[in-house]
Amino acid sequence: MKNFSSAALAALLVFVMASFGCGNGSHLVSIAVSPNPAELNAPQILQFQAIGSYSDGTTTALPSATWTFSSPSPAVTVDSKGLASCQVSGGPASTAGRVTAFFAGVSGSAVISCSGPGV
């Protein structure tokens, strides 16, 4: 096995880091979900948007974010693409939940409320 000089090892390290996108100084630090809060009236649909903030101060939409949703009521749903649907029926009713976007190991969330007729 050959001995490598310090300069050769340093050059190799720089090449490897550049190849994997490491060391560019910018990484995702947070996700904002918009709108927040989201207030829907049945029947209504709404597309949530995930906006990433990076360590260099830039922001960008994250259309490939994945979405989850939690609510005690089936009257409001959010699919894996962030599309929300409010379908409260049968008179005055209201429900709420939390929608969360995930991208590159980072998450952000928003509150969603859904109201039926008469609320």
Task: Give your account of this protein's structure.
The protein has 119 residues and is mainly β. The chain has one domain: Immunoglobulin-like (Sandwich), CATH 2.60.40.10. The protein is built from one helix and ten strands; from the N terminus they run H-E-E-E-E-E-E-E-E-E-E. It has one helix at 6-19, and strands at residues 28-34, 38-41, 44-47, 49-54, 59-61, 66-70, 76-78, 83-86, 94-103, 106-115. The strands form three sheets. The chain has a four-stranded mixed beta sheet with strand order 2-10-9-6, with no helix packed on it. The protein has a three-stranded antiparallel beta sheet with strand order 1-4-5, with no helix packed on it. A hairpin with a 4-residue loop joins strand 7 (76-78) and strand 8. The protein is elongated, with a radius of gyration of 22 Å. It starts with 5 loop residues before the first helix and ends with a strand. 21% of the residues are buried.
Summarize the structure.
This protein is mostly beta strands.
Gyration radius (Cα, Å) is 22 Å
CATH superfamily: Immunoglobulins
**What fold name stands as the CATH topology?**
Immunoglobulin-like
User: What is the CATH first-level class name?
Assistant: Mainly Beta
Number of spatially distinct domains: 1
- Per CATH, the architecture is Sandwich
Strand order of the largest sheet: 2-10-9-6
Shape: elongated
Provide the descriptors you would attach to this structure in a database record.
119 residues, mainly beta, Immunoglobulin-like, 4-stranded mixed sheet, 3-stranded antiparallel sheet, 1 helix, 10 strands, 47% strand, elongated
